[in-house]
Design brief:
The complex is a heterodimer of chains A (157) and B (131).
Chain A (H helix, E strand, L loop, with lengths): L8 H12 L2 H44 L5 E5 L5 E5 L5 E7 L2 E6 H50 L1
Antiparallel strand pairs in A: 1-2, 3-4
Helix pairs in contact in A: 1-3, 2-3
Chain B lengths: L1 H54 L6 E5 L2 E5 L1 H56 L1
Antiparallel strand pairs in B: 1-2
Classes of the chains: A alpha+beta (157), B mainly alpha (131).
Amino acid sequence: MASSRGGGSQQVIRSGDMEKMSLDQLKAVKEQADIEVNLLQDSLNNIRTATGRLENASAALHDLSLRPQGKKMLVPLTASLYVPGTLDDADKVLVDIGTGYFVEKTMAEGKDYCERKINLLKSNFDQLIEVASKKKTLADEAGLILQAKLKQSSPSS
Amino acid sequence: MSSSSTALRDLQRDLENKANDLSKLQKDIAKSHQVRKKYTIQLGENELVLKELDLLNEDANVYKLIGPVLVKQDLAEANANVRKRIEYISAELKRLDSSLQDLEEKQHSKREAILKVQQRIQSLQAGKAKA
C-alpha cells in the first residue's frame, strides 16, 4: 500500500521478508527500527538547533555591520548589568571554529563562514531526513505486520 | 542417581559463571562503543577545524583558547597541532575498533558455550525425568 510510492522496491522486498519472520524476530526488528528512528530524530533536532544558532550569529553580524564606528552602546557584563561603551571596529570579528581555536576574520569573511556552515548543515540535514523517513516507514510496516500477526495468532491459541 | 545430580549442579554453576562472563563482556562492549562515539565526534570536529584553517590566509590571526584566555598562535603551529590530534584520534579509533572486534568475537564464543551447557543440562534433566 503505502510502500508502493517513491523508491519502494527495496521496501517491498523487506516487507516480504517480514511476512515470513517469526513473532519474536519481528518484534526485534521493530524495536531496532524504533531505536534507530529515535536516534535519527535526535540528530535532526541537534542539526536544527545548530542551524538556528548559526542563523542567529549571522543576523547579529549583519546587525553589527550596519552600525557606524563610534556608535554608543550598552554592553552586557552579566544578564542584568550593562555598561556604556562605544563601537570601535566592526570590521574585525573573532570566529570560534571549534576545539578551542578562534580565527580573526573580516566582517565579510565572518558572514561567509556562517553561510558556509549553514549550507553544510542543511545538506547534512537533507541527507539525514531521507534516511530517517526510510527507517520510519520500515518501522511502521514492521509494526503493522506485527499487529496483523498477533491478531492472527490470538484467536487460534 | 546422586552422581547425575552433582553433575547437574556442576553444570548449573558453570552456566552461571559463563552468564556472568557474558554480561561483563557486554558491558565492556557497550563502554567501548560509547568511547568510540566520543572519539568519532571529536575527529569530525577536528577535521572541520583543519578544513577551516586550510582556507585561511597565511597572515591570518589565530588564537587558541587556554582556560579563560585567548592566546595568539602561529597558523602553522595551529595547523600542525590539529593534524597531530587527528592522527592521534584516528590511531585511537583504529585501536578501539580492533579491541571491539576482539570483544565481539569473545561474546560470540561465550554465547555458544552457554548454549551448549544449557543443552547438556536439558538432556540431563530429561534423562532424570525418565528414570
